[in-house]
Design a protein that fits this description.
130 residues; mainly alpha; two-stranded antiparallel sheet; elongated; 2 strands; 75% helix
Length: 130
Amino acid sequence: MFRSSTRLTAGPLEIEVTPPPSERAGLELRQLRRLEIASALEASTLLLLVCVAVPLKHLACKPAMVSAMGPIHGLAFAFYAWTVVETVAGGGWSRRDTSWLALAALVPFGGFANLGWLRRRAAALQSAGA
């Protein structure tokens, strides 16, 4: 999990250690990459569920695909939600950005739209760090 600082306790003393900016940028870039993967996975499993499994269930009377893809999509959604929480907990995210990340998972195929936004954010972070 990405954290902006670490709290060390030694007896009655408590020290907060913040990583250097270059390390912080690297951590945030890795977290953005994880978020991209989670977003693509969540959107892809929804696409398979809605465009393949549900038509097979209703048109070909084969509900097994929905029974298999439903839990897989549920796990992908949970992974995306957990990754969003991890990323936002690191700090530096506005309410608008956090809302965008949450809404992307709730809107059908929003995860695909989210990919471009995340890549632009990573590119901006790389150019600021360089």
